[in-house]
Amino acid sequence: MPASRRGSSSVTLPTGQTLALHTRTSEAEDLPHATKKKMADHLRKYEALFTLTPQRMRMIVEAFKESLELGLSKPGQVVPMIPTYVFGWPTGKEQGNYLAIDLGGTNLRVCLVTLQGEGKFEITQSKYRLTEEQKQEDGQQLFDFCAECLKAFIDSNIEGGDIEKGAILPLGFTFSYPCNQNRIDHGELIRWTKGFGAPNTEGHDVVTMFRKSLDKFKVSAEIVALTCDTTGTLIASHYVNPKTKIACIFGTGCNAAYMEHVGDIPKMAQLGIDADAEMAINCEWGAFDSFEHENLPRTKYDQIIDETSNKPGEQAFEKLISGRYLGEILRLIICELIDEGMLFLGQNTYKLEIPYSFDTAFLSLMESDPTDELLMIIGIFTHFFAVETTLAERQFFRALAKLVGRRAARLSACGIAAIVSKMGYLEEGCAVGADGSLYNKYPGFAERIHEGLQDVFGEKGRNIITYHAEDGSGIGAAIIAAMTKDRKLANRYPNL
Ligand code: BGC
């Protein structure tokens, strides 16, 4: 074993363990640190790798548009463009009590939503954190957990008087993973995303699975609609802001939904639905450029993330953009510089070497650090990774975070631009309801999307405005459940 690629020495103990030896003082400035010149050279290299020119963006938009069209024309395409069986926009008059359950990338959320009409509502909710183990355990077990949480939630609301004892409430099920649907209360999971891997679920109808769990735990709820966070966001945002035409999620995963004319969905032609009817499309755009990797500018860090993920080749667009991966991209760059002997010489960097240890929230903090000394960045590196940094290194890390965050936002702008251009929304303009931790918490993410839209469309890009959307997985799922009940009562495509 080499003495240490970190510049420290190490000894092998009789037990076989390796003990790293580091000589360090408490004064960061006394440690060997990267020179400013070296950092400037590296920064230029990363700038070249992570910067997207307007011309490159326009090329991506064109390819993106083609993928969207292809997904609408034939089943089983890379970007699946899933017809959701959500017919048109809500009227705003939807009323009643609905349950919503949202199996997200990070949390399980259960909600009781009272729709009051006129775009108004009330919501009561509980959140349960999902463990990494739960994401990998058998699918039916995962749905059992959802059913148990829902039961506990209903029971506590019966006690509190908000749910009538014995009532069987309609349930909107938000399941934000790509599913092929052939009616609104059905969805075969195409593939897990966002690090989930629960066996015995892909290729199965998740509604049937969840119904089985609801029966097992005798939960008084009837699944009326299966939806995903993005479709829910589209509908909930339009409920409160009718100018909304597109919805996006930029969170642990990323995706978009919009309203399409049924006549422009060739793969649905055989269903005989009125060509003038409208239907929400769940694009599942995180899959853009998967497998072939022909259009997106992937760096070697992106390739490592992909190859070491549980789903190599898949979700190519999402892996460059979403919150699950941005921290990891930065961590891989830092590790490369440690390996090259440029950073943290003489310090023990094992904590930084743990995959996914660098949370995307750290990037947000690094970019928003208001202090001259970049104290927040000192805190992140000392507290979470036990390494000391100089001011120049902290400035360098912040610049790197900016590059990674900016690329994500500009690529997001390309996706939005592809839908805008396909649907011809540029001239009249449109509002884009957006949600997710990245959009809501990452400083400047929305501004960078807007800047990107102007780089693609010129001045007219200003006509497309993103805004913080209404809660799609809770309110949106409830409105969709209400719309579905009303549609079926009116005998409009009752079997879909
Ligand atoms: C999923 C989508 C979801 C998005 C945002 C993606 O990984 O495939 O269904 O809408 O994440 O949560």
From TrEMBL:
Q: Where is this region: Disordered?
A: 1-32
* Keyword annotations of the record: ATP-binding, Glycolysis, Kinase, Nucleotide-binding, Transferase
Q: What is the top-level taxon of the source organism?
A: Eukaryota
Q: Where is the Hexokinase N-terminal domain?
A: 43-239
**Can the keyword Hydrolase be found in this entry's annotation?**
no
- Which PROSITE patterns does the record associate with it? HEXOKINASE_1 (PS00378), HEXOKINASE_2 (PS51748)
| GO CC annotation, single | mitochondrion
- Please give the Gene Ontology molecular function terms for this protein: ATP binding; D-glucose binding; fructokinase activity; glucokinase activity; mannokinase activity
Gene Ontology annotations of biological process type: glucose metabolic process; glycolytic process; intracellular glucose homeostasis; mannose metabolic process
Q: In which pathway does it act?
A: Carbohydrate metabolism; hexose metabolism; Carbohydrate degradation; glycolysis; D-glyceraldehyde 3-phosphate and glycerone phosphate from D-glucose: step 1/4
What Enzyme Commission number(s) does the record list for this chain? 2.7.1.-
Q: Would I find S-adenosyl-L-methionine among this entry's keywords?
A: no
Q: Tell me which Gene3D superfamilies the record gives.
A: 3.30.420.40, 3.40.367.20
Q: Which residues form the Hexokinase C-terminal domain?
A: 245-483
Catalytic activities? a D-hexose + ATP = a D-hexose 6-phosphate + ADP + H(+); D-fructose + ATP = D-fructose 6-phosphate + ADP + H(+)
Q: Where is the composition biased (Polar residues)?
A: 1-20
**Classification via InterPro entries:** ATPase_NBD (IPR043129), Hexokinase (IPR001312), Hexokinase_BS (IPR019807), Hexokinase_C (IPR022673), Hexokinase_N (IPR022672)
Q: Can you tell me which family this protein belongs to?
A: Belongs to the hexokinase family.
Q: What is this protein called?
A: Phosphotransferase
Native species of this protein? Wolfiporia cocos (strain MD-104) (Brown rot fungus)
